[in-house]
């Protein structure tokens, strides 16, 4: 477990995946990091892999990358239990979220955000805090992507086939919202420059209206659900989309909804930043956040008790070096095979 954790972190330097899409998640985390104050920047730095030099957004898609064979060839099977943490599904066209109906035993994105928030406030060991942080930054992004609070029958838009901009290759509604439309926007309107796009979203964030209850997850979910029920499922010709046929989406749809996903990226970044500021320990303390009871790993977790802090660090360093070597050899072997 410890081994596969660091292996993935290192190998992520070389291998990439897409969720909100790589870019969407990276924007959300970068926005959040730009909002950090007080002890939060140092706290985040202490929980970010050293080779990223404090750049948390490089870990924004970790929670996706652990799930797939192409990004986590040796360990993806061990993480499949986290799949349901990426979303909520509600009954079709029921435009409200009911925790007892849609998040049984807290197994959904809402439960996961509460869980990993709590774990960051508890005195767990360093590696569990890192893990909790990487899950949290990803899920706060996902919950702002309306398709992650989508309908049950089409798996949050995954089985709604769409043809985007007359392209021959089909995609699906979920994927289009995760990344297809963001990519198109950057390509069409930002000269393919994602830094420029980040600056633009940052501008939206600082000008954005901040509603009351901005820290309330229920509020985030109900906003996403409203976009699902009022905008996302209507095609170019304002027909309701479903899994029974392929729908064409072109400029008409795109121009209508891009302001929505941009508002969502900005809101996700702002809220994640505020959340991390709240979670950061009082300055001076380099250890875990103060509040909260000592929480042991949830039952069913296979994680063993871990050694004291300094021992962990040493162990870590050794493992990092070892994994770096393995990782290098792994990449090399792939490269050689391709050549
Ligand atoms: C941080 O990492 C992200 C994603 O890998 C990258 O796009 C961004 O440019 C990096 N930022 C800095 C300041 O290095
Ligand atoms: C959604 O479901 C709840 C019960 O779970 C029900 O009270 C409500 O009326 C439903 N709303 C719609 C729009 O179907
Ligand atoms: C809470 O986190 C722990 C540790 O990753 C995990 O074992 C458990 O399944 C999580 N529970 C929920 C509801 O997210
Ligand atoms: C898609 O096809 C329609 C009808 O042929 C055309 O009017 C439209 O300009 C095309 N859009 C794009 C983005 O190619
Ligand atoms: C992309 O945009 C950034 C920020 O506006 C700018 O500094 C950079 O030079 C641009 N890159 C390219 C290749 O145009
Ligand atoms: C699209 O359809 C929905 C309901 O089917 C309706 O509420 C909305 O006003 C329509 N929008 C336009 C632009 O016609
Ligand atoms: C699917 O959508 C099409 C177009 O809006 C509609 O004609 C059809 O009745 C829908 N099918 C179902 C099962 O809802
Ligand atoms: C979508 O566009 C294709 C041509 O690009 C057309 O053959 C098809 O009928 C259209 N589908 C719908 C549902 O309008």
Automatic annotation (TrEMBL):
This is Aspergillus nuclease S(1). SUPFAM superfamilies: Phospholipase C/P1 nuclease. The chain crosses the membrane at residues 315-336. Keywords: Disulfide bond, Endonuclease, Glycoprotein, Hydrolase, Membrane, Metal-binding, Nuclease, Signal, Transmembrane, Transmembrane helix. Belongs to the nuclease type I family. Residues 283-304 have a biased composition (Polar residues). Residues 1-19 form the signal peptide.
